Amino acid sequence: MPNNDSSETSSGSSITAHHIRVQKTARYYSLGTLSAATREIWFVIHGYGQLAEYFLRHFCTLDNGTRFFVAPEALSRFYVKEWTRVGAVWTTKEDRDAEVSDYVAYLQQLEHVILRQIHEKGLKREEMRIWSLGFSQGVTTLLRWIVRGGFRPDRVICWAGDIPAEIDICHYKDLFERMNATFVIGSHDEFLTPERLNRHHDLLAQAGAHLPCIRFDGGHVMDTNVLHRVVQELSQEAILY
Which domain covers residue 32, as residue numbers? Predict the structure, then answer.
């Protein structure tokens, strides 16, 4: 991995950053049973300061025997509040490129693990649809996985997040439209400010990208009732294709 990160101390000595690759154990959770009845595989990506197990609980009522949910957990954990609760984070501003490369490689490997399980059970991948949902920081994580890691789900739900700045929407417009990328945003989301949303909509308009946005009355949260409505709407659309 190339490195140009160095600084000079007051004494004139040079401090240089270096990178080495190490093995790390990643954790993911699943919900439901992968079987001949499975028609949808869901990859759901949690947000900042969350853990995969608890994030996955939002999807329990969607577990109807035909869906299998996979929730990867971010590689870095930390104490969220007064050493009482642990959360995970996908990336920070520090050494971001390396962190993004690491989690994209991790998510690629996880996808291969699930595809191998499908094959080992004698199931047919072509009879299933792949759904994906990212929440908050999970949106940028999911979209980078798509752009940098070659992930190709049939459905993309971007909940409480927008497209990361480094992704050229013009270049990936057709790809996102083919995957039916849909944004879900609360009307009182304190992080997605009006200025940020206006920038998002302007970029989509300039690119000529037709990516729908579903608004709901709420804040920066996963709302189970809204999730049901969104899935129902998108499932009805999927029947038309």
Answer: 28-240
Q: Which amino acid is at 217?
A: D
Contact 181, 211 (CB under 8 A): yes
Among 126, 189, 188, smallest CA distance to 162 is for: 189
CB atoms inside a 10 Å sphere around CB 236 = 9
- The per-residue pLDDT for 7 is 64
As for how many domains the chain has, the answer is: 1
What sign does the CA torsion over 162, 165, 170, 176 have?
Answer: negative
Report CA-CA distances (Å) from 75 to 48, 90, 227.
12, 7, 26
Q: Is residue 3 in some structural domain?
A: no
Burial of residue 53 (CB within 10 Å: 0-12, 13-18, 19+) is middle
Give the residue ranges of DSSP H helices in 69-124: 96-120
Interior/surface letters 11-45, b for 16+ CB within 10 angstroms, e for the rest: eeeeeeeeeeeeeeeeebbebbebeeebebbbbbb
Phi/psi at 222 (nearest 5 deg)? -90, 120
Find the CATH number of the domain harbouring 218. Answer: 3.40.50.1820
Name residues of the chain where pLDDT drops below 50.
1-2, 239-241
Q: Where are the alpha helices (DSSP H) in the chain?
A: 52-56, 96-120, 137-149, 169-178, 194-207, 224-240
| Spatial separation of the C-alpha atoms in residues 96 and 226, rounded to whole Å | 32
Each residue of 222-238: pLDDT tens digit? 999 999 999 999 988 75
- CA–CA separation, 72 vs 43, rounded Å? 8
